[in-house]
Amino acid sequence: MSTVPELFGSQVFNETVMKARLPKDTFKALMKTRKEGQPLVSDVANVVANAMKDWAVEKGCTHYTHWFQPMTGITAEKHDSFIYPVDGEKVIMEFSGKELVKGEPDASSFPSGGLRATFEARGYTAWDPTSDAFIKDDTLCIPTAFCSYGGEALDKKTPLLRAMNALNKQAMRILRLFGNTTAQRVNTTVGPEQEYFLIDRELYLNRRDLVYTGRTLFGAEPPKGQEMEDHYFGVIKPRVKAFMKDLNEELWKLGILAKTEHNEVAPAQHELAPIFTGTNIAADHNQLTMEIMKKVAAKHGMACLLHEKPFDGVNGSGKHNNWSMATDTGVNLLDPGDSPRENAQFLLFLVAVLEAVDEHQDLLRISVASAGNDHRLGANEAPPAIISIFLGDELTAVLDSIEQGKHYAQKDKEVLTVGVDELPPLSKDATDRNRTSPFAFTGNRFEFRSLGSTVSIACPNMMLNTIVADVLEKYADRLEKAKDFTKELNVIIHDAYHDHKRIVFNGDGYTDEWIAEAKKRGLLNLPSTADALPYYTRPENVKLFEHHGVLAKDEVFSRRDIQLENYAKQLHIEALTMVDMIYKDILPAAGKYMKDLSEEVATKTSVCAGISAEFEKDTLKELSALSDSLYKETKTLQKAIAGEGKGSVQEQAEYARNALFTQMEKTRKVADQIEPKVGKTYWPYPTYGDLLFSVL
Ligand code: ADP
Ligand code: MG
C-alpha cells in the first residue's frame, strides 16, 4: 500500500468490499438492513459472516471480537479465534452468522448501575450493521450494541442509535410539511475535534499520578508555561510530526477521515479533527482515534494524555462536538441557504435547537459531567458550567427583528416575516469569533464545546438528538394541525425565540459578570458532577426519554448511578495516589535533602567555626515547617478517605467533592511549595518543566 486513497479504508469491511464479495441478493438484503433497519435473516447472516471471515483471514486475522462501548466510557472486546476442529486433529477457520449477529459476554463485570441486580448477569452484544466491521491488531472487530438479558442498554451506543431514530422521525415530519418528498431519512452529523497532550514516555512512567489517574496531582509551576502563546499553531516538532504521520495512516486504514492537525494553546498540547460523519460512526471513530493515539504514541516513545486536566495552571483538553442535521440526500438542515423557503425551514430548525438547549440545560450539562471535566468547566479556559448559546450578532439581530416585528437594519424590508422573506446573507466569519461559548452556532452547525477530551461523544449526542427531537415533535404537531402553515410557522419561530432567548449570550463567558447575569436570567449553574447528576432522574426527564424510546426509567436511574459512582471512584483513586506519593516519595525526598543540608552545616562549622551557613539553615527551617504541614494535611486527607462509602451514591459523590477534593487541593498546595526548595537530584519526579517541554 502506498498512496493515501489506496490506504484509506483498507482495513474496513465497507460497502465496496461487501459489493465485491457478497452474492447480489445477500448484498441487497444487507443494504436493506443497513438503511431501513430490517432484521437480518439467518441465511443472509451466514453468507455475510463467511465473506467477512475470508476477507479477514486473507488480511492475516486469526480472531474476531464483538467490539462494544460499555458504560466504562472505553471500548471492550473479547477475542475468539476462528478455529473449528475437524477430523479430530485438524482445524478450519469458521465464522457463522450466529456468531456475527450475537455474542454473549458475561455482563457482570461491567458497570450496570443496579440493572444487574434485577436481571441476569448475562448480557449480549448485537451487531450494529450500520457501522462497518474492521481489522485491528489481526482481529476482526464487529461493532455491536451491548444489552442485558432483559434488553436494557448496558452501553453508550444503544441509546445513541435510539435517539438518532427519534430525531429522524420528528425531523422527517417537518421536512414533509415543507414539501420535501425526496429525503428518506434525517441523520445527525458530527465532527469531533480531539485535543491531547504528548509527553515523553520515560518521564510519564516516572509519574504514578499520571499512570494511575491520568493527571498530575503535584507539580510546581515551571519557569515557562503557556504565557508566550508560542505553541498555538506553532511549527510541529519532528517527533510529533512523525507521530501524526503514523497516526493518520492508522486512522485512514480504518476509514477514519483524519483531516486537521495542529499545536494547541498549552505546550505539548495538540489537536486532531476528522471530517464529520454520521453520529454513530463518529462515536465509533472517536473511540478508535483515542485508542490509536495512545498506541501510536507508545510506539514513538511518548505517552498520549487524554485527561481533561493533566496539568494545573495550563490549559486542559476538550473535545468540540460539531453537530448538525442532514438529510440522506445531503442537505444540511442548519445551513441558512439562500432562498426564502430554505431560510424559513432553517430558522425553524435553528429555534428548535435554541428551545431544546434552553429547556434541557441540565441534560447537556450532565452529558459532559465527569471528575476530569470538572477541572475545566468554570476554569478560565473552557466554557463555563453554565450552558448558553452563541448565535453571533447577525443571526441574533435577525431573530430580534422577527421577535419585535421590526425592520431588519440590513434589508429594506419592513418586517422579516419568515415564510416569504429572504435572510440577509450571513457572513460565516462573523459567527465564529466567540471561543468562550459552550454552544456556538458556527455558520452551518452548532459546536458543543463543553465536552471533556476523554468523554465518549455518544452520551452528549444522545442527549442533543433527544431534546431536539422533542421540540421538533411539538412543532410538527402544531404545523400538521395548522390551517395556515405560514402563519403558524411565523408564530412558532417568534414564540420560540421570545420564550427562550435568555439562553442566547454572545459575550465573554469567562467573566464573573456573566455568572451573575446568567443567574438573573434563571440559567442553571451546576459547577460539579455531584451538583449536575441529580437532575438526570427528574420526572420530566424520565418522561422525555421514555416518550422517545431512548431510555427506560430503569436505564435513566442506572446511568445516573454509574456516572456518580465513577466520579466518587475517580476521586478515591486520586486521593489514595496522593497519599501514596507523599509518604513514599515526597516526604522522604525532602527528608533526605534536609539530612544532607544538616550534615553540610555541621561539616562547614566544624571546618570553619562561626561560618554562617545561612542558605542551609533557612532552607532547613522552611522545609522542616513545610514537611510538618504536609504531614498534617495528609493525615486530614487520610481521615477523609476513611470517612468514604456512606449513604447513597449521590451522598458519596457529594462527599467525594466536599471532603476529598477540597482536602486534596489543600494538600497539593503544600507539596508544591516544597518542590522548588528541594535540590534537583533529590526530587523524585520529573517536574512540570520536564514534562511539558520533554518532546523536542
Ligand atoms: P475549528 O477549529 O475552526 O472549529 P476545525 O476544522 O478544527 O474547525 O473543525 C471543524 C469540525 O466541524 C470538523 O470536524 C468538520 O468536519 C466539522 N463540521 C463541518 N461541517 C459540519 C456539519 N455540517 N456537521 C457536523 N460537523 C461539521
Ligand atoms: Mg479546531
UniProtKB/TrEMBL annotation:
Domain annotation GS catalytic: ranges: 156-586
Gene3D superfamilies (alphabetical): 1.20.120.1560, Glutamine synthetase/guanido kinase, catalytic domain (3.30.590.10)
One MF annotation (Gene Ontology) recorded for this entry: glutamine synthetase activity
Biological processes, Gene Ontology terms: glutamine biosynthetic process
Family to which this protein belongs: Belongs to the glutamine synthetase family.
PANTHER family membership: GLUTAMINE SYNTHETASE (PTHR42974), TYPE-3 GLUTAMINE SYNTHETASE (PTHR42974:SF1)
Name of the protein: Glutamine synthetase III
Originating species: Caproicibacterium amylolyticum
Taxonomy of the source species: Bacteria, Bacillati, Bacillota, Clostridia, Eubacteriales
